Amino acid sequence: MTHRFPLRVYYEDTDLAGIVYYANYLKFIERARTEFVRERGVDQRALKEAEGIIFAVRHIEADYLAPAKFDDELVVETSVEPSAGARIVMRQNVLRDGKVLFSAVVTIVPVSEAGQVARLPANIRLSLH
C-alpha cells in the first residue's frame, strides 16, 4: 500500500534560482514518513516513553531526477519494501503532476535510548508493513 503526502513548495524551500534546495527533499520525505507511521497507528512519542525506542535513518540512497520549483504542488509517495531483522526499508518518491522528481530508498532502524539498535515490538512491525 502506498501512502501519499501532499505538500507545496514555499519560497523558503528554494535557492536564488527558485529551485528546491537539494537538502529540502530530505525534509519533505521525513515529513511524509512521519505521517505514514502516524496513519498506521504508531504513536512515536508513546513508543519512546513506553519502550525507549525511536526511529533513526541508518542509510539513504537518493536520486535527484528533475527540479521542483517555487509554488509547485508535490506529492510524496511512501511504500515499505520487504525487509528482515530490525530494519525497515522504505521507498519514497517526490512527484509533480505524476512525474518523479526525486527518488529515495531509506533504511530505518529502531534505536534505544543508549543509541543501540533495538528490537521493534511485533505489533509495531506489523503496523508498518
From TrEMBL:
Keyword Cytoplasm: no
SUPFAM superfamilies: Thioesterase/thiol ester dehydrase-isomerase (SSF54637)
Keywords assigned: Hydrolase
InterPro entries associated with the record: 4-hydroxybenzoyl-CoA_TE, HotDog_dom_sf, Tol-Pal_acyl-CoA_thioesterase, YbgC/YbaW
CDD domains given in the database record: 4HBT
Similarity comment text for this entry: Belongs to the 4-hydroxybenzoyl-CoA thioesterase family.
Name of the protein in its database record: Tol-pal system-associated acyl-CoA thioesterase
Organism: Sinisalibacter aestuarii
